[in-house]
What does this fold into?
Amino acid sequence: MKPGPLDRLIHVLSKLPGIGEKTATRLSFFLLRSKTGLSEELAQALLDVSREMRLCETCCNVASKSPCDFCLDTKRDRATLCVVAQPQDLKAVEKSGVFHGHYHILHGLLSPLDGIGPEDLRIAELVQRLHSGEIREVVLAVSANIEGDTTALYLGRVLQDYPVRVTRLGQGLPAGGELEYLDSFTVGRAFESRREL
Amino acid sequence: MKPGPLDRLIHVLSKLPGIGEKTATRLSFFLLRSKTGLSEELAQALLDVSREMRLCETCCNVASKSPCDFCLDTKRDRATLCVVAQPQDLKAVEKSGVFHGHYHILHGLLSPLDGIGPEDLRIAELVQRLHSGEIREVVLAVSANIEGDTTALYLGRVLQDYPVRVTRLGQGLPAGGELEYLDSFTVGRAFESRREL
It folds into this structure.
């Protein structure tokens, strides 16, 4: 028997990260059973994303237009620039509601072991933006892991030639983090970054 | 900022079972980044399923044509009929490779608590098939839970008026099941269904 539409859907779904054949089968049958046109809705959303999304030429974010809404927003502070690895990191920062400046997306972090060097990231575009002279502070909002540390170190060196303050997100105990259950590396970093009451 | 194509995709994906906003976001960005046209491929597979899949009028399986390939397959034994709750159960039975007869899909199991009665299942269609007189055995391949037990009991009564042997899948230790780790209900059932060596 040749594979039918259902087998093809299961096959395509199981190409997604974290979705194996069993989950793909469960999702496919759910989509098949749903009477509200969920399959068509999802198909349309996928086509829209693939047709409409591009990179913003300024901040390198994925957006439906270039410059993107973030770059066009005149209410945002043009003097601070938050550098993140991925578009989803921008979403995480936005959700926190504490940052009101502009963004720059690197599309990755330096990782020599994976063969990802500076030329693979949007670092040239970042440096280009500093030439305007408007930017006073660059906040490196990169993860607290080896790749994040490497990238922060590298960017710190590259940006020292420019008259900007370069900062990195603080490290320490996460909100609600109980000492008893945290890893020793986090506790160590929290000790190093302790502050006066 | 109004929701863009990416937010819409995240929203639709998070309607799927077991997929929350975080997973939907991760999947969306994966689809966005994939350069092989995975979004279009998935969209096409979804549209194909929604356009082409229907219920087989004979066995009530979801298929791209009616009668379906299983019902048309002349190599399959017309004298045995395997009754399953869902199309995915048919897949599980097929994978085991031990059954070579025909199938009937109930599209659910009796569950008085959830308000699912005999009229909600494809039982009338099952009884109709017995009128041909070809079928000698009906194997109830339903799960070993309350709903499966209820459905098997009910079908056993309905089918006793017909000259067919009605059987149910054996219950006992699963393959590789270690006594030490199995629940007592399974061990109890295995004892009841013990056989001579």
In short: The CA atoms of residues 60 and 105 of chain B lie 5 Å apart.
